[in-house]
Please model this.
Amino acid sequence: MNAPATTDLPVVVIGAGPIGLAAAAHLVDRGIAPLVLEAGATAGAAVRGWAHVRLFSTWGEVVDRAAEKLLAPTGWAHPDPASYPSGGDWAEQYLQPLAHALGERVRLDSRVTGVSRAGRDRIVDADRDQQPFVVRIARADGREEQILARAVIDASGTWATPGPAGACGLPALGEGAAADRITYRVPDIGDPAVRARYAGRRTAVIGSGASAFTALVHLAALAGSGGNGEGTKGVWVVRRGISGSTFGGGSADQLPARGALGLAAKAAVDEGHADAVTGFRTEAIERDTEGRLVLVAEDGRRLDAVDEVIVLTGLRPDLGFLGELRLRLDERLQAPAGLAPLIDPNQHSCGTVYPHGHRELSHPEQGIHLVGMKSYGRAPTFLAMTGYEQVRSVAAALAGDLEAADRVELALPETGVCGGAGLFDTPAPSAAALAVTDVSAPVGGCCGS
Model:
């Protein structure tokens, strides 16, 4: 294959979400041509999937500096830095304008199905690093094409691959057959059809992170809304025990809305809108004679039947289309091996993850960088600010400015709901540990923001 010199080729960025578009903005700022490939029909397609959820980061924390610089000539006005956007706000007021500013550098309806080296499969060594990347694309109309690239930044995220209900990491027995009563997203109770699905019914929420907290708070709000919402009940299914840190940093959290979310979820349990079931590791989902779902634990325990199940057990990376590249990934987290020790959720929360960049994100295959949620693999401790720092560093490295690439330009807020030791079972606390002393207005969000 007669490939052009790699310096004449664009850097392909996979995904037109917050981190992918920020990567493109940093590349433009460095004089490097990006080409953003987005599988969806709009920029921020994944973010639009949780448009109803409010972030626990403010506008001042979710706008990238290089992106703002690119937006400035268009007349774009920065939203109030102290206010909290919803996912829909983020997509409409920031991501869409940023995609417009990037213009033809963003291609929609372009799903990446494979990445390799020109003329080299995974096993071939000869002149490998001198060959451009081959990026295969499937278009919405069924056409296939391929693009050559000097480097690839994979910011495709993990939204499309949620974790299953099964505690072993596999779907629970019967989970597929019960799909009509299971969702893997935080329901939008503001949608009349969604509201009708959960109103007055008993719903199991499986998970212990910010998304699960948000679902519990929404169900509690539905239960307290009167009308057909009366009788709405949540069953919070937790694989581990509940301790004093389960609900996060509370009023001590440097992201106040994140602390408020934990306190609101705590209130949902304390006020009886949700019953907590601890140490329950789901093995099977069965139907009773009325078609309702019964969760069965590995230890044989069976919960009373529920009408619906919301599975919020985290997200995982899709690595299938990178199979011809030489990646060095941590065997547990599926994150870059140099980054994994810094984000291990057994040891770290969002605020204790040291800012990092191109070196921690490197692989044996030079020129490929997994960034954003994709770089965190299965770890739930990601913040948008972290991703912006990652792509700033990667763009600087691709431009040959290693001094800037190695410089740390980020300070993260401490404490919060998304980490700490104890991913497995921990002893249940005393009743006093669950007492609520301060409940603020619930504000949803997730570390994947």
User: Anything to note?
Assistant: The first strand starts at residue 11 and ends at 14. Residues 189 and 218 are 7 Å apart (CA to CA). Residues 415-449 have pLDDT under 50 and may be disordered. The radius of gyration is 22 Å.
